[in-house]
Design a protein that fits this description.
94 residues; mainly alpha; Arc Repressor Mutant, subunit A; three-stranded antiparallel β-sheet; 4 helices; 3 strands
């Protein structure tokens, strides 16, 4: 079991929490005219997790579930992910 700096475990992150955090990050990126979020930018807004633990979460709960894709440290939503984001925030536009 991998843990972050403050002892939070990777398993402590569920899909809903990840979707909420990604939704917020993508909305902020969209407001800035971007169609993606870098892993390092996303990591800056996640307290208590080391980068390696965050990448594991993104891959296990985001990429494998078809919510996001990661290419060269750039995170982009998939069509399935966009639908998930709209379910939690009806104002989400992409």
């Amino acid at each position: 079991m991998e843990s972050g700096k403050d002892g939070k475990t990777v398993e402590g992150w569920d899909e809903n929490l990840l979707i909420q955090r990604l939704c917020g990050a993508f909305k902020k990126a969209r407001e800035g005219g971007q169609k993606h979020v870098t892993v390092s930018d996303f990591h800056e807004h996640i307290e208590g997790l080391e980068l390696g633990a965050l990448l594991e979460i993104l891959k296990n709960q985001g990429v494998q579930k078809g919510i996001i894709e990661i290419d060269t440290n750039v995170i982009r939503p998939t069509p399935h992910g966009i639908e998930k984001f709209k379910q939690i925030d009806s104002s989400f536009q992409w």
